[in-house]
Design a protein that fits this description.
The protein has about 110 residues and is of the alpha+beta class. The protein is built from 3 helices and 6 strands; from the N terminus they run αββββββαα. The strands form 3 sheets. The protein has a two-stranded antiparallel ribbon with strand order 1-4. The chain has a two-stranded antiparallel ribbon with strand order 2-3. It is elongated and about 85 Å long.
Length: about 110
């Protein structure tokens, strides 16, 4: 016997394959979802699981719904906004000028005192 390895061809953690060794599978239900491009996704869920109304299409990434004729619309993605863009949404130019003038006034008072 070369090498003396009695369990050649197996790997650590490999066990017998079969339902009897792994336990019984939970009862499942397959649900069909369709996206706006007509792709169908059929994930399976446990019978007692809460089934979502929407699912992400595995082909194109669009949202998919349970109704083939009425798939959900694609979500609108907001472009990246910088911190300055958010500030400009909240404040007008006049507000910004007033805040800047106030801050400069406080700075001058600290330096002059």
């Amino acid at each position: 016997m070369v090498g003396g390895n009695a369990i050649r061809g197996t790997r650590i953690g490999a066990g017998p394959v079969g339902e009897s060794e792994r336990g019984e599978s939970a009862p499942r239900v397959k649900v069909s979802y369709w996206c706006a491009n007509g792709h169908e996704a059929t994930p399976s869920f446990a019978m007692d699981a809460e089934i979502p109304d929407e699912w992400e299409c595995q082909h194109c990434g669009l949202p998919a719904g349970k109704e083939r004729e009425n798939p959900p619309d694609a979500r609108r993605t907001e472009p990246y906004k910088s911190h300055l863009a958010y500030v400009k949404e909240r404040r007008s130019d006049e507000d910004g000028e007033a805040i800047l003038a106030e801050a400069l006034q406080r700075l001058r008072e600290r330096r002059g005192a």
